[in-house]
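I'd like us to work through together how a protein chain folds, taking it slowly. To get us started, please write out a protein record for me. Label the sequence line and the structure token line clearly, so we can match residues to local backbone shapes. Once you have written the record down, we can walk along the chain together.
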Amino acid sequence: MTPFRAAVLHIVSRIPPGKVTSYGAVAAMAGQPRAARGVGWILNNLPPDTDMPWWRVVNAAGALSTYKLPGSAGPVQRARLEAEGVTLDSPGPQGKIADDRLWWDPDPEDLPG
């Protein structure tokens, strides 16, 4: 496992229920601020039965993932977020995070290194 992959998985595993962060924020926290797509690739290639909370990672605009992640992203991501109390501003796969207070502000101890 590469150090970047290990850092990404560590960070994503620390996002608490009911909070979200972006691919770019995860990349920056992992020490690669221009690697948002790399974070997406890592999460997209998780095994289908993973317990990694990939659904808590959204794009920079706060929108749901539009490509396939474990469980066919859009509807599954929405359902998992809503089950954790995350509200979206509109129905369907185009919804965005409705409340800025839902963005994760990690403690330094949650970050690698």
In short: The two ends are 16 Å apart (CA to CA).
